[in-house]
Amino acid sequence: MTDIKTRLQEIRAQIPTNVRLVCVSKFHPAEYISEAYANGERDFGESRAQELMQKIEVLPKDIRWHFIGPLQSNKVKYLVPTTYLIHSVENEKLLAEIEKQASKHNVTQRVLLEVHIAQEESKHGFSEEELNCFFSEERWKQYPHVEICGLMGIATLTNNDEETKEEFRTIHDLFNTTKEKYNSESFCELSIGMSHDFPLAINEGATMVRVGSAIFGERDYSKK
Ligand SMILES: *Cc1c(COP(=O)(O)O)cnc(C)c1O
Fold it and tell me: Do 209 and 192 meet the contact criterion of CB atoms below 8 Å apart?
């Protein structure tokens, strides 16, 4: 745990000030978050609704919580309106549920649309075609309580940097063409890059990187 400060300094040194670092704290205890908080971090990423709610209870109120995990419709009610940004909106069904919950609370929920850029079938997200349709047909108009702030992507898990760069470039191009079509000022975030590939993501236009194990160490999935 004493390593967190040192690791954060090393990572911070690689991130320009205009790129936001989201510290991915999933599966790690609240004390780890407090340690990063004491070092000035305010953006934390979680992947399970239950765990997020428990942490919100005990941690400072000025933390910006990012939800980055696979999301089921029945969990959306736990995330709205306390989550600062939901990165992992992978289909329109989720948008409809977020709209319902946000409208109930009379708030606007900020989200990113997740795009499927990896080779792995198991990964989630809108296909390029679905995304293009969504904006060409102006379907976002159906969700007035949702603010679409940009795109999120997860690259293929590989040691081949060229492949990773290619995937990041694809989503960056998609981000640019979408921004032109959508023409909304709120559409300005590109969330790409994790512990092993965030420097590549920054080179390819990331505005947010999601870094977990490089800060907090390996996760123990057997706990909880
Ligand atoms: C867990 C997770 C991360 C962080 O992964 P690390 O490799 O630990 O940096 C980033 N993004 C998403 C979507 C995740 O689920």
Answer: yes
Looking at the DSSP bridge assignments, the partners of residue 22 are 210
Of 186, 184, 190, the C-alpha closest to 205 is 190
pTM for the model stands at: 0.96
Nearest to 102 by CA among 83, 81, 82: 81
Determine the average pLDDT of the residues in 78-98: 97
Q: Which atom number of ligand 1 is nearest to the Cα of residue 152?
A: 13
Burial (Cβ within 10 Å: 0-12, 13-18, ≥19) of residue 113: buried
Does any ligand 1 atom lie closer than 6 A to the CB of residue 154? yes
Which of 210, 213, 220, 221, when mutated, tests ligand 1's pocket best, judged by the most ligand atoms within 8 Å of its CB?
Answer: 210
Q: Which two tokens stand for residue 193?
A: 């890059």
175 pLDDT band (50/70/90 cuts)? very high
- In short, whether 68's Cβ falls inside 6 Å of ligand 1 is yes
**Rounded-to-integer distance, Cα 78 and Cα 82, Å:** 8
193 lines ligand 1 (CB under 6 A): no
Q: pLDDT, tens digit, for every residue of 143-170?
A: 999 999 999 999 999 999 999 999 999 9
